[in-house]
Amino acid sequence: METSIVGVGVGITDRFRSVVEEKATRIEHLAPRAQRVDVKVTHRAYHNGRMEDDTVELTLTGKGPLVRAEATDGDKFAALDLAVDKLCEQLRRAKDKRVDSRNHPRGAKFEKGSGSLEGIDVQPASVDVIRAVATGEIPIITGNEDEEDYTPVVIRTKQFSAEWMTVEDAVDRMELVGHDFFLFIDARSDHPSVVYRRKGWDYGVISLSTLAAPTELAS
User: For residues 132 and 191, what is the distance between their CA atoms, to the nearest angstrom?
Assistant: First the structure.
């Protein structure tokens, strides 16, 4: 794993570089897929130099999400220790979360062989019942059948303010909200678009484009 050290308002000594290399080994043990750790040391003075501190910022990049941590102390070595502890704790929590999700998957689980449904308090309908409902042999009663213009089809409508963003930002927003799709306006083309999740970490994009404004429909 590569290391890069930058000092802002402070010089970087050989001793500090050697300590960073030692800490990098600890980080690499927890994040073997990491490719690079950037270390930024910023020295600040307050009240005409009577109070000083150093802030150490760590940024870990590689095959996975970006991980950041920072800490401030009167001594840059102490700030480095605190920042490394924070970064390692974040890596441990992320690793434990991945292991827990593999060993204890959440949500409903359907067994193809037995047809059982686990993880949710719902008893699946039999094939005969589903077929009877589909053919109308068993009517669906909602209590609204006597209403004018009644239809058994329910369409729920939601409206949101349009947001212009890139496809990459839309994918990030979709992951943050935990949905399988996200509607937005592509900032590069100004076209209404939808990003959606495919298998694994693959994503797709659907966009609408028009060559001319639609003509008004005759009433």
Answer: 44
